[in-house]
Amino acid sequence: MGDLINAVILGIVEGLTEFLPVSSSGHMILTNKLIGVLPDDQKMITFEIIIQLAAILAIALVYRARIASLFGLSRQTETVGTLSPLGKRSRRKLNLIHVALGIVPALLLAFFLRDIIKGEGFNQTPVLISLVVGGIYMIVAERLVKSGRIRTVSESMDDITYKQALSIGLLQCLSLWPGFSRSGSTIAGGMLVGTSYKAAADFSFLMAIPIMMAASGYELLDNYKYIKGDNLMFFIVGFLVSFVVAWIVIVLFLKYIQKVKLSYFAVYRFILAALFWIFVMR
């Protein structure tokens, strides 16, 4: 029963934090510490991969129409888009090149730095610093846009240019620092290069599908042997809880995105860093 309770707790934490700019890795490290999970427990490492895959499935479900349009499997690519800053309606133009430009930099860097990230990046001090630095980065991005020093030129995801997609992809490399947050680096990064908050979030979530599939799939190849019959229910419960919670979070976040500023998440990150200091590092 204890394992199933842990599965529910960790599934909720993963679902709540994977796509919000608050750092799922920071939350998982803190939660594992609080419930007494050892950092080198191979079963738990495999479990975290499984619940992350559940979160990916949830976001793929939410963006299924857009994914279909990228591969030419629906007519959505021919529909009229949203109003541009110039007041003219533009056709949907986001394509697989945009997505590739957004994900390749982080995937390449992650491949070459994998051992360093896994060895040093998940130590407590780097994660704690990353939570704070990432929060400051988000506040700076939001304030620069609000002050008018950065002009929003891409109101919707379909207005994002190749240059913006590549810039967001390069800024996504910041998320390889555990605790920084992939969604935080890309949403704030998008705003810094002239996309709206909503456009940046949409593009961030869409990019999450291939980049997380690649990362989690690669890790699963090394850890699938830990999924055994005697702990199968543990993995199933975690997967289902993570999927449901992630789906709810994504839908609600996109619905209320204009009311939830990045600075709110930044303040939360600072609070999490304080909790990290109290419960993990002391």
Any descriptors?
cell wall biogenesis/degradation; hydrolase; 11 helices; 282 residues; 70% helix; mainly alpha; cell membrane; 2 strands; antibiotic resistance; single chain; transmembrane helix
Characterization of this structure:
- It is a single chain.
- The chain is mostly helical and 282 residues long.
- Helix 1 runs antiparallel to helix 2, helix 5 runs parallel beside helix 7 and helix 7 runs antiparallel to helix 8.
- A two-stranded antiparallel ribbon has the order 1-2.
- About 5% of the residues have low confidence.
- The protein has eleven helices and two strands; from the N terminus they run ααααββααααααα.
- The chain has one domain.
- The chain starts with a helix and ends with a helix.
- It is globular and about 55 Å long.
How would the blueprint of this fold be written?
Layout: H1 2-17, H2 24-35, H3 42-62, H4 64-70, E1 80-83, E2 89-91, H5 96-121, H6 124-147, H7 162-172, H8 182-192, H9 197-223, H10 232-255, H11 262-279
Antiparallel strand pairs: 1-2
Helix pairs in contact: 1-2, 1-3, 1-10, 2-11, 3-9, 3-10, 5-7, 5-9, 6-8, 6-11, 7-8, 8-9
Helix tally? 11
End-to-end distance: 30 Å
The amount of beta strand, in percent, is under 5%
Mean pLDDT, to the nearest integer, reads 87
Oligomer: single chain
Order of helices and strands: HHHHEEHHHHHHH
- How many beta-strand elements? 2
Shape: globular
Please state the CA-atom Rg, rounded to the nearest Å: 19 Å
Question: How many domains comprise the coordinates?
Answer: 1
- Low-pLDDT parts are 77-90
The largest beta-sheet arranges its strands as 1-2
Structural class, by secondary structure, is mainly alpha
Overall helicity: 55-70%
Largest sheet: 2 strands, antiparallel
GO cellular component, one term: plasma membrane
Transmembrane segments: 49-73, 94-113, 125-141, 162-180, 200-221, 233-256, 262-280
Protein name: Undecaprenyl-diphosphatase
Organism: Paenibacillus baekrokdamisoli
